[in-house]
Amino acid sequence: MGGGILQKRRVGSTDIEVSIIGLGTVKFGRNQGVKYPASFSLPTDEEIERLLNGAVELGVNLLDTAPAYGTSEERLGLLLQGRRRDWIISTKVGEEFIEGESHFDFSPQAIQKSVERSLRRLRTDYLDIVLVHSNGEDKRLIEEENVFATLNALKQAGKIRAYGMSTKTIAGGLLTIEMADIAMVAFNPEYVDERIVMAYAQQKNKSIFIKKALMSGHLQKMQSADPVQDTMRFIFAEPGVTSVIVGTINPDHLQKNVNSVLAAITT
């Protein structure tokens, strides 16, 4: 891989700096119940290692994983031995994917157990970022389950450095910006409902991670000569964006996405 190097942006008021493209790792460990247009086989360790090495060359330092991503955490834990400080690792709590079905538990005990398990799987003594993997009941999780209070206690204990939620609602996104460091929201040219959350993050000096930027591989619906570059230009025109998470196991796709971002932010 070659080309330019991605810039980094600070996560809210923390000292964490992440590349403006993050690598989503669902395809490292799970190929059931995913919404991609084509089926795929899980990559080998060698293929993942090649992808990670190429990502480092491009300046990508953010990895997005989750317990719900099958064996993704364990595989990363093995492959990142001796390289932990090259990466900002973002994982999640609240959802597990067991025998083809999602299971949710947002209790303090479940969140604590999930974080401890992620530490073991990733073979690390700290997690940079932990996001609540919402089941869609964002507001209830924040106001009744008190998920951020649980995560804040883990932050104070030195287990995690920053926290937030991968949200499903505008109300949940706004509350997350009020009470946490990061909201992960869906945003692309076909879906702009959560722009208000992004604007609020900018106002509050909090961070926004973008999911579904490339519509889970369905970008070909867009009438454009270069839909990826046009999408990245559209997203990075928003001042509140910290990083766009792109899930891929193909080094050429990653290179193309990085090139598209570099072209989008310089033109």
- Mean pLDDT equals 93
Gap between N and C termini, in Å?
22 Å
Structural class: alpha/beta
Principal-axis shape equals globular
Q: How much helical structure, as a percent, in the residues?
A: 25-40%
Beta-strand portion reads 15-25%
DSSP strand count? 12
Radius of gyration: 17 Å
Tell me which oligomeric state these chains represent: single chain
What's the helix-strand series?
EEEHHEHEEEHEHHEHEHEHEH
Q: How many helices in DSSP terms?
A: 10
Q: Uncertain runs with pLDDT below 50, 5 residues or more?
A: none
Q: In order across it, which strands form the biggest sheet? A: 3-4-5-8-9-10-11-12
Largest sheet: 8 strands, parallel, barrel
How is this structure best described in words?
This protein is α/β, with parallel strands linked by helices and 267 residues long. 38% of the residues lie in helices and 22% in strands. The chain contains 10 helices and 12 strands. It has helices at 26-29, 45-58, 72-79, 108-121, 138-143, 147-156, 170-179, 195-204, 227-236, 251-266; strands at 8-10, 17-19, 21-24, 62-64, 88-93, 95-98, 101-104, 127-133, 160-166, 182-186, 207-211, 241-247. Helix 2 (45-58) packs parallel to helix 10 and helix 9 crosses helix 10. The longest helix is centred in the C-terminal third of the chain and has 16 residues, at 251-266. The relative contact order is 0.16.
Outline:
The protein is an alpha/beta fold and 267 residues long. It is built from 10 helices and 12 strands.
Supply the key terms.
267 residues; alpha/beta; single chain; 38% helix; 12 strands; eight-stranded parallel beta barrel
